[in-house]
Hints:
The protein is of the alpha/beta class and about 270 residues long. It is built from nine helices and twelve strands. The protein has helices spanning about 5-20, 25-40, 70-75, 100-110, 120-130, 180-190, 205-210, 235-240, 255-260, and strands spanning about 45-55, 55-65, 90-95, 115-120, 140, 145, 150-155, 175-180, 195-200, 220-225, 245-250, 260-269. Strands 5-4-3-9-10-12-11 form a seven-stranded mixed β-sheet, sandwiched between helices. A three-stranded mixed β-sheet has the order 6-8-7.
Amino acid sequence: MPGLASRLRRAREALDILSNFAADWRSRRVLAACYATILTSTTDPREESFRLRIRGREFPFRMRRSDLFTLAEILHEGQYVLKSTLPASPTIVDAGANVGVAALWFLANHPGAALHAFEPEPENFRLLEANLGSMPGVVLNQAAVGAREATVELHLASHGAVHSVADASVGSRTVKVPCLALEPYLARRGIARIDLLKLDVEGSEADVVLGLGARLADVGVIVGEMHERLVDVPALYARLGSAGFRVLAKEYFGDGLADGVHAFEMARE
């Protein structure tokens, strides 16, 4: 059972989510049931449908009960509350879109955005498609993002948020998935600029940057998670610094310090 401090933290989080992000009473009941579940199981696969309210916009949403952790990271902890200002109708690339919580956050905060989302794991992608597939301006890619275009092995974890190409320790099961590099992807799509690049790629952060090639010069803001055990963090920050980026934020959310995962935001000088 979680300790008292952990349970109190989770109770405050639940109050925030139910009060500020559940769109109606039915959605509050569904989310309350999810919170009751995660007291005893962090990997409950049962799916729930409800409505989210983000920045005054309502979105139908479907997730596994265990996806509540991802929901809380983005909506309660505010991991993608930007210090940077994006232009009107920005182009956003979401690498590691999972079931689409971050994508909805960006779309709610930046109406008119063009969003390109990448998610390799089939069950995550099924839910991502259910949540964003009919939205205008959204392109969904069932693929990982990396240094080059290839077929790669995705290591499957017990929780849907931590599948990884880079980290074999997350689980013994694997599935082969396509991997795209952003430099040729941008060329194929005729995309002139990425105003916001979001990275939640479980240890492939440096590979995504490498796959941008010369198009790194066309990225305005980068935000995401840095997996310190899997990435040469000083080298990657130095690479981005030499490309004109500076660190605006670096923070350990939740258990991030113990897990060696920090959130970051970088923007051009």
